[in-house]
Design goal:
Layout: H1 3-11, E1 15-18, E2 30-33, E3 48-50, E4 53-58, E5 65-66, E6 69-70
Keywords: Hydrolase, Protease
Organism: Pinus taeda (Loblolly pine)
GO biological process, one term: proteolysis
Length: about 80
């Protein structure tokens, strides 16, 4: 089961995490759950549910760019 589905009843489906820079030995990440876990200044991508896979969550994609160049991938397959 997904993390949101397992913790929804206890924490109201609210959680936030920030992954550290993989290449840095001095940066750190964070993880918090529950009300107030998402700062007002946070920028986020909403999770999308799918009735065919109710225990999984997805993010909606409009395109993929690498180095500022958009890849030629049809949006129908994203």
């Amino acid at each position: 089961l997904s993390f949101p589905s397992q913790t929804n009843s206890k924490y109201g489906g609210q959680f936030s995490y920030c992954l550290p820079d993989f290449g840095s030995s001095t940066s750190s990440g964070s993880f918090s759950v529950g009300q107030g876990s998402i700062p007002a200044s946070a920028v986020f991508t909403p999770l999308v549910s799918n009735l065919l896979y109710p225990t999984f969550y997805f993010v909606g994609l409009n395109g993929i760019s690498v180095g500022g160049e958009r890849l030629s991938i049809p949006t129908a397959v994203l």
